[in-house]
Amino acid sequence: MTNPIPPAAIDALTAVFGKKRVLHTPEDLLVFEYDGTIERGSPQVVVFPDTAAEVSAAVKIARRFDLPIVPRGAGTGLSGGAVAAVGGVLIAMTRMHEILEVDVANRTAMVEPGVVNLHLSQAVAKHGLYYAPDPSSQRACTIGGNVAENAGGPHCLAYGVTTNHVIGLEVVLADGEIVWVGGGARDLPGYDLPGIIVGSEGTLCIVTKALVRLMRTPESTRTLLAIFDSIDQATATVSNVIGEGLVPAAMEMLDRETIKAVEPALHVGYPLDAGAVLLIEIEGLAEATEEDAARVRAVCIAAGAREIREATHPVDREKLWAGRKGAISALGQLAPNYYILDGVVPRTRLPEVMQGVVRVGEEYGFPIANVFHAGDGNLHPCILFDERRPGETERVLDAGEAIMRLCVDAGGSVTGEHGIGLEKRDFMPWIFTDADMAAMSKLKAAFGAGEHFNPCKAFPTSKGCGEVHTKAAMAALGPDAYV
Amino acid sequence: MTTTLDAAALSRALQDRIPSLDVRDGTPEHAIDGLQPALIVSPSSQTDVAAVLGIASEAGAAVAPRGGGTQTALGGAPERYDIALDLTGLDALVENEPADLTVTVEAGMRLSELQRRLGAHGQWLPLDPSLPDEATIGGILAANASGPARIRYGSARDLVIGMTVALANGDLVKSGGRVVKNVAGYDMAKLHIGALGTLGVITQASFKVAPLPVDESFVAIDGELEKLTTLAADVIEARLPLLGLVLTKQASAADWTLAVRTGGGEAAVERSQHEIGRLAVAAGLTDAPITASVWRLATHLSGEVVARVTASTTQLRELADEIKTANGEICALPGIGVATAAWASTPDAKTLAALRTHCNAVGGALILERAPVELKREAGVWGATRGDFALMQRLKHEFDPNRVLNPGRFIGGI
After folding, report:
1. Nearest CA of chain B to the CA of A113: how many Å?
2. Which of A244, A404, B49, B298 has the largest CB neighbor count within 10 A?
3. From the DSSP assignment, how many helices (H) and strands (E) are in chain B?
């Protein structure tokens, strides 16, 4: 349980932000105690900066009162990254949501961190451009959050993840200094600071501007839905497509359990009796997509696909993707809670790992819905459960851990794109030695970040992190609270 | 400039603690900017590399890692230089599962050897810098060397998925992994790419690889700079499956040349050739096919003085013009904004300073990759530091507090 925040800290923040942009009552803090996961943690105060200078001021005040600092975007994260583990000052970046400049000739955009991912693509669509990293949460998630987690998305198979699209960043350091790292040009002399900041999960600095790369929309896009009787056939197909030297723009898998939730809710055209489907997108010149689509079809059929449909109209394509991107939310049809896992394995190991996932589900007695970036080997088993049943949450976490172990044993990693956050700190020693992590901690030292920025995240529990689930704001209000 | 280091004692310490280690006396061949090291050390394992650094650190010795020696000129004069650390003995292919489109290789393997091995499975590492027969993987990463293929595949930072590095404190540490998406831990590989070994010595790297194109075409169009710049922009806008787009002016040529490489399926390449032809004709120019070897010659430069110039893509034409006016040869990558400039005979420092000022004005830089010692000293290798230099200094301090690794050679004298 964190100490109450000193009133002087509230006063200091109010002097900078005004009363409206400082929240500190339990009722107000309630909304900020969670993200996209089952983690909970109440900040002691939330502020909403409009400028980098205000971010800097907030950081300095937090430091003065020795309060932890937690940057937050839209709160859609899936590893607890924006959850205040040990209270502190939550700096919500959502008011900084301007697209500052679009340079069409150089195909770059300068954006504030609160810009919603999809809004950026929509804003530059009129120039025939788009921002490639497309997490499923892109209607809500923000660029700043994407940078913190090195977010991926279905089209990262061909185009890379966030770090491949960030050219420069303006950041606020732990002493409040505002610094520009990277630059307008490529290959600048010196260390690749944007490269190490992307994916650092808010533990090194706070991003206040990003210069990102835009891409030209392709001439031709073909979207296929390959339908299989079994997950095994689908995973074998993924492995074989890559093995053939074909790299589609996206290759996503949804299994029967997922389709059961998605189709009745969204009516996008997924067959309810399939064991699994692959949503495969191919982009390029018209000649290239025709050729590649034919090759992909052949691989699917050889692996036993019972049918392959192609979205011939943009509306059908949108529907297929709406089903994929709305899949997680649709899981609410099947159970009150889900725990979405994020693991990654070499593609050749997908078939065996997915069999392992099925076994874990059976062993622990949970239905598991799988919807994921099969082309990257990046799996998202979603364990369906009901947190109201006693002991269920604990068992779910154990099942999750068992699946993570499967990934590591298959030569993979414990997170493909969601981040380590709170969720997986203690898995880090499975893949990194003490020396590996000691080297990483040198980054924190170089940034002067210590444990000030997002403490208790990304690395194994340090002292003081212990029991993460601080007394939630709800509990603080008392049993008779009306919220 | 010799140091107070007792080279003989160091040599004994190295051989005592690492009995199998190959330790020899330094030769002029290993000199950097006229400074000859006391010792050449050639480890045969990654753990030995780390052990060497640990011992060097204890002894206060300075180490310069080297692979094929193609980029030893890159960097300022060493503050101290006691050990040339030769990585060429670390040349194992650690792992390659073709169906995964990934490869893990030790730092001392030559790029062309890696390409040969991947080629046997119809794949390649889509990185095409100069001198692939001599350059090693580690050196290419440490110098952040790249080539025209980056228009599709990016540069080293976009291809590395895991890395093992020997640190100055004797630790051998890894980051990333062998999978194409991975956000566990900090992305430490980004630290070391382009860092000239100043934060650690790369001993192993894992990469995403690409399928070799089924079909390819190489085409060249000669003409004036202005027209070719516009043509290049049109080619980019045509969204062709480019594997390289190079605007070049070499001493022997009367005109500028735009060289285009496309790769993919047969139909896509045929379409590309057709499009390029159409665009060329519309510009009043003619395109002609060239061979792969002519492409290689046209798209890589060498010289007494070589500079890497980086600017915004729209500024590239002006810079290219300026370089030509200064009697340099140039290979520019439109769409990326990076160019190589080379001079057969040494330009003066003022010329380079003017060029650099122009680059800086558009948010870019000029890096003197190769030049006589005096010119490097006068003009400066890296140019001025920027607002993030303090952070870089702190990184150096964290990773190499005793200044073991290439001290003084990096930006701002790091």
Report:
1. 20
2. B49
3. 14, 19
